[in-house]
């Protein structure tokens, strides 16, 4: 079903509110440059954020030597209302690519990752003709409340763990501490996807990348999870991560906002 979909930059608070109501994870990326809102008539039906991950230059330079953060944007969050038709997200991505080519013609690539550790292998990117650049294993903690916590966000817990072990400093939680706190150390796959935005980018895909980019896409049977709390690690079924009771990611989760009046005011000033 073809939607009468339009896109424009929207207020950060409106975007965050929408994402936290409609995305499976309310944790927001920190390096966000643009908040795009997608509308059917005057109704906000989708949000996509553009920026970078935690290592902007290293990420692109690993794939294309000599490039930097100025050469690409990464999708941070993308979501639509559940009641939207099946192919709506493909239309959202198509409109995002068109918006980038018009407003940021200097960008070479739109990059993103499918969160395999959350059971996502990237079907939406596959349907939108993104190129697949392989997978890699990543590690997270599953806390006692089911919350997924990145190792970079464990500073205060590691201080507690160090005191427990009578150590000055720790970089990873110890197995006895995790057992005491009912914490699991989980390993799973992330899947890379990229979309070249111009002729130069298409050439770099073929001749200038250290990765092989194809349309040999992963499927659900490509998903893997391991419990590294125990040694040796053992393969497990998909962990039951949940964000129903946010405790450990509070600094990266903005309070849910009532944005109805703000959205109305925004539309009045932009129409």
Question: Can you describe this structure?
Answer:
There is one protein chain. It contains eight helices and ten strands. A hairpin with a 5-residue loop joins strand 6 and strand 7 (148-149). Strands 1, 2, 3, 4, 5, 6, 7, 8, 9 and 10 form a ten-stranded mixed β-sheet that branches. The chain has a single domain, classed as Aminopeptidase. The chain has helices spanning 12-22, 56-63, 88-103, 123-127, 155-165, 175-181, 199-207, 260-270; strands spanning 5-9, 31-40, 43-52, 72-80, 109-114, 131-142, 148-149, 184-196, 225-227, 234-236. The chain is an alpha+beta fold and 271 residues long. Mean pLDDT is 91; it is low at 256-271.
Defining key terms:
271 residues; alpha+beta; Aminopeptidase; ten-stranded mixed β-sheet; 8 helices; globular; disordered C terminus
Summarize the structure.
Helices cover 29% and strands 27% of the residues. With 271 residues, it is an alpha+beta fold.
Count of all domains: 1
Distance between the termini: 26 Å
Largest sheet: 10 strands, mixed
Summarize the amount of helix as a percent range.
25-40%
The Cα radius of gyration reads 20 Å
CATH class: Alpha Beta
Blueprint (SSEs and pairs):
Layout lengths: L4 E5 L2 H11 L8 E10 L2 E10 L3 H8 L8 E9 L7 H16 L5 E6 L8 H5 L3 E12 L5 E2 L5 H11 L9 H7 L2 E13 L2 H9 L17 E3 L6 E3 L23 H11 L1
Parallel strand pairs: 4-5
Antiparallel strand pairs: 1-2, 2-3, 3-4, 5-8, 6-7, 6-8, 8-9, 9-10
């Amino acid at each position: 079903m073809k939607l009468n979909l339009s896109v424009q930059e929207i207020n950060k608070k409106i975007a965050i509110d929408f994402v936290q109501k409609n995305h499976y994870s309310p944790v927001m990326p920190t390096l966000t440059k643009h908040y795009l809102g997608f509308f059917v008539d005057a109704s906000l039906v989708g949000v996509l954020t553009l920026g970078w991950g935690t290592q902007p230059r290293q990420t692109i330079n690993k794939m294309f030597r000599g490039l930097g953060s100025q050469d690409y944007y990464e999708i941070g969050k993308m979501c639509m209302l559940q009641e939207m038709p099946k192919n709506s997200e493909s239309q959202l991505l198509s409109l995002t690519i068109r918006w980038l080519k018009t407003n940021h013609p200097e960008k070479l690539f739109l990059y993103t990752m499918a969160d395999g550790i959350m059971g996502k292998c990237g079907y939406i990117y596959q349907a939108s003709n993104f190129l697949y650049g392989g997978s890699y294993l990543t590690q997270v903690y599953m806390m006692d409340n089911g919350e997924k916590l990145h190792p970079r966000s464990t500073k205060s817990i590691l201080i507690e763990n160090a005191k427990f072990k009578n150590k000055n400093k720790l970089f990873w939680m110890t197995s006895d501490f995790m057992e005491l706190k009912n914490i699991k150390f989980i390993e799973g796959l992330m899947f890379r996807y990229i979309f070249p935005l111009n002729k130069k980018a298409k050439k770099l895909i073929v001749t200038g990348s250290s990765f092989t980019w194809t349309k040999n896409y992963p499927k659900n049977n490509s998903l893997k999870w391991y419990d590294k709390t125990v040694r040796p690690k053992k393969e497990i079924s998909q962990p039951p991560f949940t964000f129903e009771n946010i405790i450990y990611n509070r600094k990266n989760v903005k309070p849910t906002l009532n944005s109805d009046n703000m959205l109305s005011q925004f539309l009045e000033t932009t129409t």
